[in-house]
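Task card 7
Instruction: Convert sequence to structure tokens.
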Amino acid sequence: MMKSPAQRHFERVSAEQAAASAAPGESLAGANAYELMLVKLSTDRRRLKSIASIEQKIKVKRDELLPDYVDYVTGSLSGGRGAQDDVLTTVMIWRIDAGDYAGALDIARYAIKHRMTLPDQYDRPLATAIAEEFAEAALADFKKGIAIDFVQLGEVAELTAPADMHDQVRAKMHKAIGYAVQGTDSALALQHLRRALELDSRVGVKQDIARIEKASNAAG
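Output:
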């Protein structure tokens, strides 16, 4: 059911007040708006778990679940002081799944700035998950013929650069950036693809490097 403007305003303000109630390193537990969204998140997770199809899961996230979190996210980012928020970080991952990369980045900037963590079921450090999820989404889009947003991907790489993570994850990011710019800047593409290969010999870019080098040499 569509929320009224008054309901949306109330959700936004309530989230803003809840987010302002705790500082970095503290918990939002006990804040009404947060507790209500945790209950909703638990219900939504159970619903997603009951769906076998990955494609259908993504559709449900995009069309039915994520719109209900928009006002909470807006209020939380506006009023937040950096306290741990499992709702925000989960929505961030879901937004990547659903192709809302700009929306996911809004949360990623805040979450990395305040050194937040992902809920336990993700079993990865926050920065690693952000880098890997964005890179894999970009590579999947590339396979479908969908253009990769180099600016967004570049920001993700910059945001996650200071973090310690497996070389294979970093390699995926360099591969995705290389693919994003190969049509406009072959030198930069080669730089990223070669770095990807240095980090992971099995990243799958050797033929791309050879193809771009051959085209560059032919162009003189």
